[in-house]
## 1
Amino acid sequence: MLSRLLKYEFRATSRIMLCVLGALLAIAAAASLGMRAIGYNRGLTIVGAMVLVLYFLAIMCVGAVTLILLVYRFYKSLLSDEGYLIFSLPVGVHSHICCKLICAAVWMLASFAAILLSIAIVASSIGITGVVLSDLQVMFERIAAAWSIGALDFASFALELLLLAELSAVGGCLTFYAAMSFGFSFSEHKALCSVLAYIAIGILTQLCIAALLGALGLLFSLQGPGFYISLGGILNVTRVKNLSHAVMLGGIVLQAAYCAVLYAITAYFLKRRLNLP
Amino acid sequence: MPVLECIELEKSYGRSEALRGVSLKAEGGRILGLLGPNGSGKTTLIKLACGLLQPSGGEIRICGLAPGVETKKIVSLLPDRLSLPGYMSPAALCAMYEDFFEDFDAGRAERLLDELGIDPAQRVRRMSRGTREKVQLILAMSRRARLYLLDEPISGVDPAARDYIISTIMTNYAPDAAVVLSTHLISEAERLLDDVVFLGAGRVVMSGGADELRERSGKSVDALFREVFKC
């Protein structure tokens, strides 16, 4: 049933997202022409500059529209009148949440890819793509030589970073979902309760992070002076690599736990405290 | 086994009690009228039966099962409000129902849409309120469900549309299915009803077969309702 839900969710969202991403690429193409036009004469320079400003605004719009659409879809299909139709389908609450999350994750990745592609389109007009790529290559080669980091390490770091970024994005979506599921379980002032719940989740998250960092600091201080002496040897390349991996993996585990808590809150309120208008 | 059974069913919203110890049964092949004034708990009971709410106490069973994914396969809901996504067309909605409900009869839906002259390709958001309600009714009644939950299907529509809705209900529900129809427009729906439950302030005030109630009181169900719930 999840695949069928996804089919209808992507149909509902693609109507808007494909238009938005298409518009971004079209504006990028126009900005690319605008970049070439700058300097020809005063009129063309002004037009070119305006198209460039429009392009930067379009990038911001893509981010905003993606976020607003994903939050709106959750509200519209699960918590508004449409919820009567959606929740009468023979599908469990987990499938509904997973459907929304998968769709959100895919569109966020697609938006990110479209923004990168648009940057490449604009950069191609002034012929700096090759220069940037070769500079990046030189940078990675020097880092690799200095720290004895191989392609495998780069790949694993990139993978960890991508996973952490995706989990952070999913966590961001789940924060909205959990807050709305909680807020809309009330009979009145649903939107206000959702906003307050969102703020409360944010404050609680910050408190948890502060408590975790405090606990880590305490743990290190209990290690005694020997720990700091050994920390001095951290410039050892292997230890730097291991520490970096540990930090990334720790971040992934923490972010996954954060997502799991928010998912559980969302599922509980949709399953046990659903209160459609 | 009754298609729908409530045993001492309770539902509270905070301090407000919407249902207080409601017990009733809906048998297959019969139409049960859930009658009561506004705020008597009719919609709450229907929401509980289709799993949109969780009971605070008591039990609710559909073909012996607690409301959940399995019961949603055999329950067809017509809510008291417009719930169809505006960007979809009747054709897309029929395809969606076909995808999710094994008991959906696409041929019947097409025939009913055709009878009413509704364009299957027109988006719901471009339709009038009355047409949207008809599309919603067609989708609900095109399923061969075991239980039809129809919440205020004739409220807020013109008399001609009411006649159409009543005849659609009478001619399209599966013979072994139970129909639970909530309304406060009793005179319009009375001819449909086999059984009647009067709900008042979340309690069952009176219940029985429609004929039995008429014989016992010497009044129509509508007149009896007006007497019971006289302000």
## 2
Amino acid sequence: MAEKVTGAEALMLSLKNEGVTTIFGYPGGSIMPTYDALYDYTRGEKKSFEHVLVRHEQAATHAAEGFARVSGKVGVTLVTSGPGVTNTLTGVADAMMDSTPIVVIAGQVGTAVLGSDAFQEVDLVSVAQPITKWTYQIRRAEDVAWAVSRAFYIARSGRPGPVVLDFTKNAQTDLVEYKPANVDFIRSYVPSPEPKEEAIKAAAELINSAKKPMALVGQGVELGNAQEELKAFLEKADIPAGRTMLGLSALPSNHKLNMGMLGMHGSYSVNIKEQEADVIIAVGMRFSDRVTGNLSKYAKQAKIIHLDIDASEIDKNVKTTVAVVGDCKKTLPAITALLKEADHTEWKESFQPLRQQEIDRVITPATKPTSGPLLMGEVAHAVAKATNSESILVTDVGQNQLMSVRYYKFHKPRSIATSGGMGTMGYGLPAAMGATYGAPDRTVCCFMGDGGLQMMIQEFGTIMEYQIPVKMILLNNNYLGNVRQWQDMFFNHKRSFTPMVNPDFGKVAEAYNIPHRIVKDRAELQDAIQEMLNTKGAFFLEAVIKPDANVEPMTAPGRAVDEMQLNVEC
Amino acid sequence: METKLYTLIIYSENFAGILNQITAVFTRRQVNIESLNVCASSTPGVHKYTITCFCTEEMVVTLCKQMEKKIDVLQAHYFTDEEIFIMEACLLKISTEGLLQNPAASKAVRRHGARIVEVNPTFSIVEKKGLTEDILSLFEALNEMGIVRQFVRSGRIAVTRDCIEHLDQYLEQREMNK
């Protein structure tokens, strides 16, 4: 008979069994037995994990998200009950929206006092269910191995997502004979539906008959590891493609069929041409309202083919002509095999004049100004260039995000971590920390605004303690810039609580022993970026940018995508 | 798009908390549940939910997809009244005095094929099984006489007209793919 271990140690062994190496967490009352076991598993002969002590539980989930996004592995968060776990929920909801595989393990009061409003008790299962792929309360030590294995299987398979495990105190302390569990089948859950042959055929026929086909590439391509299959598909039928914000590194920026980014602040030509394409092929994307603009006017002329692993995405927002449900790693090559080689030169070339207009009126002024204050676009452009477009881009939310995703270039897959669906301010800094653990060999550049940085500025402590090599770029305009832009555009310039009085961020970085530099002059920008990149470990670069610059181009809310304005009118 | 009454039949594993997840799908889409019945199904370990709601077909399709997306939900199907056999039940507490003074009351009970299952000096209990409209018709008839003291209707239960049980077929297939 095997030796009995506590449920807490069974959790350690179960995490080890799942190949976990890094845990982002924060201890507290109800998770103490687990932290007691964790101590032994982070040193000495049992050493299996690195534990990163964040400074706020929300940061633990964002760090797990950043880790997962760049590595393709499941990110892990360990926190206590009550406020510990409610603090993680913004990150959990963010992971749900953006299909990011994380497992959050939270302590819970003992089963004997569940429901009695015991100290730091919260009804986690009820709270977490709507924003998770799966939530489960572990009430017995015997269930630990099964629940953990099931949690990881659910988080990473099919359309990935967050799982929350509510780990009662008695289940942590009771003894159990540990036997590894390897859940790889759940009868009620079909993670990757088998594609239907008739759908594959119908999709291929429609594409073969198209005169103006256009592909919309989403994060599903990265999640399905189908970057090469996507290229083969696009190249065979010569299909120009737009990428969603989360799918930006699914197709290299310099690929000849990449036409730019979709969405409200995406590429002008892509937005206009969506209204002209005769066949639209959406691959692993969900037609978010930020992509479609006014849905009732979106691509009405086009026949829509939707490839998605999640059947509930089909017809949710945009009605499809052909739905191909399945893993795009399988569906893309199956369709490609039936495609005729095509040449859509004329159609592709028709993007160029629009692209040129955007270059002349938006891109060049934003990235290569010769006078005036520093601009967001030129900083993002310069950082991307200085890292040969090989670094990972992590962003916060707002103008810093929109400008950095617009002017960054991506040559490698899994090179972007940004909060898409939720638009979570505060995401950037902790997600970037997590990304350095997920891709330790790559440079991680994190763009933030002064608002978002201050939502998670305590994480300077984590960066200091663990010497996390994040390259932080603060685009400081002393405004909640994106809201300020909308106030100027749609609320008659009434800047309601968007100007911010900020601290000396350099001094804050200094207090945490983080090397830093502030740059105000254009002439210094290159040198400052080089100093950041040449400095070993973390660096905090503050760029003082034009206070009231706008993100352009823009499709105003409620407008159709082809009503996009190159230059916004305030 | 036309709004009508749909009956949804949903199967799930017998885990705690799934009813919450199912009703949350309705809440999120702002659809009111008209009736709800939950019970163990004929398949061991599987729970069956019979839910009715008024909505468009487009909406009911979305509801079913969103429910099937839940990890522990096995299947979710929707039906119109023509596609299923329906049964509901009701209990009416009526005043015994009112019953005795109104010959039309016992006529209404008989006309509707209902049964009087309890009579005491103060009140009597009428039980009726059948279609929604029959139950409502009985209620209205007795209510007009002013003798109804309490009225309760069960959630709808329904079976499909298919010869095969789709759930069993699905489970068999899943076990084969294991």
